[in-house]
Design brief:
- This protein is α+β, with helices and mostly antiparallel strands.
- Strands 13, 16, 17, 18, 19, 20, 21, 22, 23 and 24 form a 10-stranded antiparallel beta sheet that branches. The chain has a 5-stranded antiparallel beta sheet with strand order 3-4-5-6-7, with helices on one face. A 5-stranded antiparallel beta sheet has the order 8-9-10-11-12.
- Helix 2 crosses helix 3.
- Strand 9 and strand 10 form a beta hairpin.
- The protein folds into 3 domains: 85 residues, Nuclear Transport Factor 2, Chain: A, CATH 3.10.450.350; 146 residues, Nuclear Transport Factor 2, Chain: A, CATH 3.10.450; 112 residues, Glucose Permease (Domain IIA).
- 18% of the residues lie in helices and 34% in strands.
- The radius of gyration is 46 Å and the shape is globular.
Amino acid sequence: MQASRKTSSKGEIKLPKKHLAAVTAVAVCLIGVISFLPSKNVQAKRNVIAVDLPTDAQTPGQAKLTSATQPKAGNTQTTPQPPNWQKTTITPGDNLTTAFKRLGLNASDVYTVANASTEQKPLRRLRPGEYIAIALNEEGKLAQVKYTRSSLEHYLYERGENGFEGTKVILQPDLIPTHTTATINNSLSFDANKAGLSQAKIMELANIFGWDIDFALDIRKGDEFSVLYDEKFLNGEKVGTGDILAATFTNHGKTFRAVRYIEQDGAINYYTPDGKPMRKAFLRAPLDFTRISSNFSLRRKHPVHKRIKAHRGVDYAAPRGTPVYSAGDGKVIASGYSKANGNYVFIQHGGKYVTKYLHLTKRLTRKGKHVDQGDTIGTVGSTGYATGPHLHYEFLVNGVHRNPRTVKLPDAKTIAKNQRNEFIAQTVPLLNQLSQHNGMLIAQADTHD
């Protein structure tokens, strides 16, 4: 049985309307399915768009990581630990070998460090009270050596591929001006120390005024001093004292003033406020003595010959071996021995002055040698006609003996004219600081009165 269908005159098949609707619906479905299937010639593609974002960009709601909590990609190293130092204090007689032995090191370690490529010499001059510290590496081998001379200076020796290499380290402290004043009721040493000055600073003060004041004989009860000096601080801790900046000293009612000036060559000298040097051409006394055993006198009974004879110098009693200094710059014109004088040294200072030093245990200079003020020329003794260790010191002006204790000493050179402005710029602020402190103290004293 043939299905009945109608054909047009052109050969076209005409489907019933119901069939045509069904075919159309199937065709639409097939097209929809095919449109979601990839063709054989289609490849997956991805377009990448580079976008620069700020380093701290974050998505909404995401917590921002701090540098302490944010992980760093690829960084798996741990923070290096500081060296574990083992330290020993240098004692009298120590050297690098004995110090290293106490720290458990051997002769090989001593050799490698002592032959460091740089800074070898400091290790040959170890002083008592200094420190040597060592640090070992993970293998237990010596890696670092620290030689500490003071809180501001040390040497660091580190092992490298070619042995140890040394480096000198100088730390720069903060300088803070400090003021101290005192009235002498007992002695300069006692009262100055009670006021806070160290023995080294007391000696520095005495050396500044030593050309004008005889600190062994002239100090009296009621004398006063006021001093402005630097204190050194490192990381908030006091590590020492610096220079005296300015000072006054009142002796027998007369006040002397001194202020620091740094010369063009870096040397430090002290001057009066008007530019005259505190340093004189001669030392008042050429040694640190205990007492004067015999003064200058034209009529004195000689302790050995027991007769009246002029004593044309001053006898300074001091322990045997005490250093004797040249009183000024000059040339040695005699250095020898005689029955009366024992070991002696004579020095010519220009064409006007001669100083003589008698009864020395040793002579440490020779005829014709130039000496500077303060050079050691011999030591105290009792050679020749002497009853005990002392220095007999004579001072001649144009060939005439003068009393060394009272003769007017010539000044050293004053500030040059071309340095005058720099001198004022440096010294006026220091003198003003000292005056302000003194003024404040005076005001406080008036208030309490």
